[in-house]
């Protein structure tokens, strides 16, 4: 039977059962004093508030309806200061290397010439954008906002599971979870030194303003959304409101004199930085998909001229593709001349015959993912699948091996979670949000996602996962 690292408790070697880890002792003492009825009442209060505020997540194709609440769990995930320092150092290192990689592949291509990454892995990648070749972007920053998924496995070691560099979402839930915990249990924040996260919108706005085109002293920033039917629309509206900037759709913007303008009641207003939450293909119907009604005709030409900043940059997705993920440690060594602080999960690239053979022989024990997939879709979790599901996936893998990677089924760490029948362990991950501009920064913490189904390893909201507040304890 697999053993899982428990974030809250450790097994006592003397045989006295589980004892709280040092950074959880105060919380565990508080929790032991709470009547279960109070916790149930507080959870109901949280659900009612989230529903009233409209903190929802759209699930495409869900028969239950277009939107639902992301379940919120009241037992926080707590990380001590020393562990966070280690994580932060590794995240900054990783995102710096990824930005250097994206700049390199659209310019000198040193890493390809050095033979570190096969050229077909980049140039045949669905996320590679030849239109970006040779384009200069402000400060050579492409991934202004990165959401890096971290898991803890085995005896408690951290691993990077994936890099989200296109339009990473979830930060609004990080902020709302903290507000909810402070509202429900203010006494916990009086008795624990918990690092704040509520300044994230200010950090994000400062970061976006810092990468405005050259010569713009007082840049205008907007958030570009596909509209209210997008799964993360709540977050788009939330961040625009928190930053005090306009939330716009493509039809609100137009191009004139090689400049982006926003339509306002006072007439056109120049736009300098667009925090876009629209995929590359839909940004400019003149350059990408001609049937897109979400973007702005002519936007790419303004971008090429360096007269607007897009965050994140067009073409960034090539670096968060799962077929590129195995090469990130090599990028760190190549660009920074450093050893990676955070390790990748061991990965089999099914385009390689020997890796494919291994994967096919061990499907019941592996997790297999589409290289372009996201949201927990298009994947096989071998140990949780039926023989029929495994055999059906085997045929997909044989038909198109270069579309998949495989990884060992990690023994993801667990955190006690308040479920229907009381408090029980559930598997979790962590998505910190890394901002790159004139410097690389992040708030202490991130979004902890929790797999609410017993035994499930899939934490994605689209697959029924929930969220927890993440506490970084200050020394």
From TrEMBL:
Pfam families: CP_ATPgrasp_2. Residues 76-451 form the Circularly permuted ATP-grasp type domain. InterPro entries: ATP-dep_Glu-Cys_Ligase-2, CP_ATPgrasp_2, UCP005522. PANTHER family: BLR5612 PROTEIN (PTHR34595), SLL1039 PROTEIN (PTHR34595:SF7). This is Circularly permuted type 2 ATP-grasp protein. It comes from Undibacterium griseum.
């Amino acid at each position: 039977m697999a053993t899982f690292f428990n974030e809250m408790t450790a097994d006592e070697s003397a045989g006295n059962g589980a004892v709280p880890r040092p950074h959880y002792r105060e919380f565990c003492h508080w929790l032991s004093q709470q009547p279960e009825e109070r916790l149930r009442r507080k959870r109901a209060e949280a659900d009612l508030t989230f529903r009233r505020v409209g903190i929802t997540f759209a699930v495409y194709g869900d028969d239950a309806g277009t939107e639902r609440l992301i379940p919120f769990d009241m037992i926080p995930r707590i990380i001590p200061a020393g562990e966070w320092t280690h994580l932060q150092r590794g995240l900054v290192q990783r995102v710096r290397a990824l930005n250097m990689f994206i700049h390199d592949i659209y310019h000198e291509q040193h890493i390809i010439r050095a033979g570190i990454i096969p050229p077909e892995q980049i140039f045949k990648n669905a996320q590679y954008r030849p239109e970006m070749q040779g384009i200069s972007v402000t400060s050579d920053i492409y991934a202004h906002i990165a959401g890096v998924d971290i898991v803890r496995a085995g005896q408690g070691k951290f691993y990077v599971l994936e890099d989200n560099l296109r339009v990473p979402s979830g930060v609004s839930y990080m902020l709302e979870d903290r507000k909810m915990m402070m509202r429900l249990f203010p006494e916990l924040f009086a008795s624990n030194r918990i690092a704040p996260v509520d300044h994230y919108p200010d950090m994000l706005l400062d970061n976006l303003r810092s990468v405005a085109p050259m010569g713009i002293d007082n840049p205008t920033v907007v958030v570009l959304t596909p509209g209210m039917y997008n799964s993360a629309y709540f977050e788009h509206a939330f961040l625009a409101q928190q930053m005090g900037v306009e939330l716009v759709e493509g039809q609100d913007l137009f191009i004139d004199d090689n400049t982006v303008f926003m339509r306002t009641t006072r007439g056109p207003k120049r736009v300098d930085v667009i925090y876009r939450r629209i995929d590359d293909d839909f940004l400019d119907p003149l350059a990408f998909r001609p049937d897109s009604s979400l973007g702005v005709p002519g936007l790419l030409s303004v971008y090429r001229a360096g007269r607007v900043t897009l965050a994140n940059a067009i073409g960034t997705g090539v670096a968060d593709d799962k077929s590129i993920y195995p090469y990130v440690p090599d990028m760190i060594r190549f660009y920074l001349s450093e050893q990676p602080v955070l390790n990748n999960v061991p990965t089999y690239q099914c385009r390689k015959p020997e890796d494919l053979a291994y994967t096919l022989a061990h499907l019941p024990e592996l997790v297999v993912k589409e290289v372009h997939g996201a949201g927990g879709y298009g994947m096989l979790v071998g140990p949780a699948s039926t023989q029929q599901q495994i055999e059906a996936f085997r045929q997909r893998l044989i038909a198109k091996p270069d579309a998949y990677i495989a990884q060992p089924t990690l023994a993801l760490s667990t955190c006690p979670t308040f479920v229907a029948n009381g408090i029980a362990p559930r598997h979790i991950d962590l998505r910190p949000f890394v901002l790159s501009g004139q410097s690389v920064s992040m708030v202490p913490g991130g979004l902890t996602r929790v797999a609410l189904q017993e035994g499930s390893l899939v934490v994605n909201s689209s697959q029924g996962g929930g969220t927890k507040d993440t506490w970084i304890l200050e020394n």
